Amino acid sequence: MPKPIREVLTNEALTGATVTVAGWVRTFRNDRFIALNDGSTIHNLQLVLDPEGTPRELVDRITTSAAVKATGELVPSPASGQRVELQVKELIVLGDSDGETYPIQPKKHSLEFLREQAHLRFRTNTFGAVFRIRHQVSFGIHEYFHDNGFFYFHSPIITASDAEGAGEMFRVTTLEDTKGTDPSEDFFERVTNLTVSGQLEAELGATALGRVYTFGPTFRAENSNTARHLAEFWMIEPEIAFADLKDDMDLAEGLCKHLIRRVLEQSADDLAFLDKRYADEEKQKPEAQRSSMGLIERLRFVADNPFERITYTEAIRILQDSKPYKKKKFQFPVEWGRDLQSEHERYLVEKHFNKPVIVTGYPAAIKAFYMRMNGPGDLGHSDQGPTVAAMDVLFPGIGEIIGGSQREERLEQLKERMAAMDIPEKELWWYLDTRKFGTVPHAGFGLGLERFVQFVTGMGNIRDVIPFPRTPGSAEF
Ligand code: ATP
Ligand code: MN
User: Fold this and answer.
1) Longest C-alpha distance within the chain, in Å?
2) Distance between CA 264 and CA 262 in Å, rounded?
3) Domain 122-464, second-level architecture
4) 254-281 average pLDDT score
5) Is the full-model pTM beyond 0.90?
6) What distance in angstroms lies between residue 275's CA and the mean position of ligand 2's atoms?
7) Cα 218 to middle of ligand 1, angstroms
8) For domain 5-102, is the CATH number 3.40.50.300?
9) In Å, what is the CA distance from 235 to each residue of 31, 155, 195, 262, 433?
């Protein structure tokens, strides 16, 4: 097997050795210098051909994105910006690439164009960096939970519960035509959907195993064409028994910081590239919309500073005292009882506090049935109306990145909330059982993987941080 270029470029013991590498040609200059990339790192290895010893017909086959394998001596490079290069002794073309029709030319393409070439976009520096970082984040998630005594819990992808209310669902059926057919004739003999959240099942896991987390695909048929919504995305949902809202916030903050530190350490080269890219993009924006920090600077800042923690009631007050509110610049109303919109979240994070913010104690009426009802003395209790032990983590440039809560563990209160929200008890009999048999305080949250990767990579559109985005009207590839 050829050696990964990442290793060839970093392992000093290889200098002077005979090495075999393989990859895709990024550029070819003067019939002599190949910049080869194999995806293991953002850096290319320079291959130097022997002008005499390379037949013309072979030279002609070295085109952009051709796959080649080469063996030669790794020698110190006289060129600047690279420690070593490969003096090629033997080179074969594994796969030709027609330079004329290859869609991704060695020049800057727009992200929109590359989305239409999603099958090939991984061969660009930007997407290579993004997907190597996505891996580091995913791996770091398992690492963090594993090291903290959590068990990876696989919640089902096909579910029958439609009570959660997290979003519109995709129906799963084997019927040719669902109209007028009794669901009992369907495969599962009932109506089933793709999951919108693994939380209810994670609660079942946590109330036996103590600490669990799910990490899997999640589906929402929400028709929102925004830069932060996908119809298929990956969600991480930890759930902890014997924990309250403060524990939940600490866990969320700890996880975010661990992941950021890990990427800063493991993906320094990719981040350096994305940092420059981000700075270039910011320059295109009008002054007022530019971020106050560079990408890496912001990652360090978030990793090193405590998140701001405020209640929903305080958030409303801050917003009502704000300049954009007074100048009627917000599109949506700010009023106790209404949900915070993205513009409000971003004001709090980017203008007011200039750091991540955790908002707790949202009005009960705008949150899900399973969130714990606050009483006097509880965090986020308000005299303006009933609130629940919810928390949203808001990040700069993104808005909501995490939504979580302490769960209602008291059977009577839970039943009351379900009745108020028209959720039939008989559909969730298994969920209610956990409150009947040894119920305990517990809490958890949902982190959207893609939103987090957006934050870390500085990519503005969520479609550019998942290999094959699924959005309304779009499921090519
Ligand atoms: P939003 O208000 O932004 O639509 P939500 O309140 O519907 O989010 P939750 O149901 O709390 O979100 O889901 C938990 C997390 O999952 C969110 O904080 C976000 O990071 C992520 N998420 C939710 N919906 C989507 C989506 N359609 N695409 C990508 N990520 C999502
Ligand atoms: Mn949503």
Assistant:
1) 86
2) 5
3) 2-Layer Sandwich (3.30)
4) 97
5) yes
6) 29
7) 10
8) no
9) 48, 11, 11, 19, 26
